[in-house]
Amino acid sequence: MTEFSSLTRVIRAGIETDSAQGAVVPPLYNSSNYTFAQFGVPREFDYTRSGNPTRAILGDALAELEGGAGATIVATGMGAVTLSLLALLNPGDVVAYPHDCYGGSWRVFEQLGAKGHYTFVAVDFSDTESAAAQLRELKPNLVWLETPSNPLLRITDVAAISAVGHEVGAVVVADNTFLPLVQRPFELGVDVIVHSVTKYLNGHSDVVQGAVIAKTQSHADLFNWWGNVLGLTASPADSHLVLRGLRTLDVRLQRHLENAEAVVDAIKDHPAIKNLYFPGLKTHPGHEIAAKQQSSFGAMLSFELVGGEDAARRFVEAVDLFSLAESLGGTESLVAHPATMTHASMTPEAQSAAGITAGLLRFSIGIEPAEDLIADITAGLDAAKQAAEVLETVA
Ligand SMILES: Cc1ncc(COP(=O)(O)O)c(C=O)c1O
């Protein structure tokens, strides 16, 4: 029998598996409970918090996508962050995490740390040498990675940091939300992958969901067990929608990635931009590592405007296509102001340490035709430039 590629297996997840009716697409099993076959003899599923046929197809597909042994599908991306921490850590354990990670992850680290359960230490993983030295001294139990980072798209050398993490006995977890298919964390040495499924995996901005994917069966069993114990598992209806989104992940991503390159190329010399953050730029400090460990540079970018917050406001008012909204990875293009939106839960000190300024805007490049995106973003930049000029005249 022909051995098909992993991507084909993901695209065809659950197709032609319905023996009852012969449905091509797997049906949605909303049922919360399942009859026992007979007294004392459960079937494969008994109660949807513990297991559900629709969610199981999605779990297998996401494990296949990342090359892991199994996946636990939970209600939100933050649920996936929480599940991985609670399942892996013991009281007193130490976690090293990126100083510029997603604001919600930062908040859960801070708050669990404040309760005294574990110790969380912020590390700048974009500086491989100093991060490695810090890890050797700290000897954390868990190393948390997120690369490219959010919102400044700093790059971590995943293979190098994972090797040091293992050397000191840590479990290495990577949040791969920004780069499904493009970055293969298990091949780079990571033990556990976390996703906000909400983003590219679902891809249509109509579901909030998370996944914890384990490289080994023992970790996969651990996460499944804790997912049920803590009651974090996702709804079957959401899982059904995500399965639909997942089938087009590869084709959607191709357009997202092409568009991001085209937009960056069109705006990179615009005078309204002070700093443009995109790992595909040769001037980006993480460019070479990104080129080595990613098959593309992703579809997220951010820039800091010369005119600061006023210019950011003018930009947002001037654009029509880029919707002012949190989240990313949907078909529609979005702009976010990290300081007041995605990263508002960080203290001003933490924002400043992470390099988040009032003039910074973050973009999720969608799949609309590139020429429309370029026209719109250029109109926004022209308006931002005018705002900066007015400020200069006043000063
Ligand atoms: C990198 C990253 N990880 C985790 C999350 C949390 O996911 P969710 O919003 O699905 O809970 C997000 C959300 O924006 C994110 O960007």
TrEMBL record:
UniProt entry keywords in alphabetical sequence: Pyridoxal phosphate, Transferase
InterPro entries in UniProt: Cys/Met-Metab_PyrdxlP-dep_enz, O_succ_thio_ly, PyrdxlP-dep_Trfase, PyrdxlP-dep_Trfase_major, PyrdxlP-dep_Trfase_small
Cofactor requirements of the protein: pyridoxal 5'-phosphate
Short name of any one Pfam family annotated for the protein: Cys_Met_Meta_PP
GO cellular component: cytoplasm
Parts forming coiled coils: none
Domain of life, per lineage: Bacteria
N6-(pyridoxal phosphate)lysine, modified sites: 199
EC number(s) given by UniProt: 4.4.1.2
GO biological process: cysteine biosynthetic process via cystathionine; methionine biosynthetic process; transsulfuration
Catalytic reaction annotation: L-methionine + H2O = methanethiol + 2-oxobutanoate + NH4(+); L-homocysteine + H2O = 2-oxobutanoate + hydrogen sulfide + NH4(+) + H(+)
Signal peptide: none
KW Transferase (keyword) present: yes
Gene Ontology MF term list: cystathionine gamma-lyase activity; cystathionine gamma-synthase activity; homocysteine desulfhydrase activity; methionine gamma-lyase activity; pyridoxal phosphate binding
NCBIfam families in the cross-refs: O_succ_thio_ly (TIGR02080)
Family the UniProt entry places it in: Belongs to the trans-sulfuration enzymes family.
Name this polypeptide is given: homocysteine desulfhydrase
Organism: Gulosibacter chungangensis
Taxonomic placement: Bacteria, Bacillati, Actinomycetota, Actinomycetes, Micrococcales
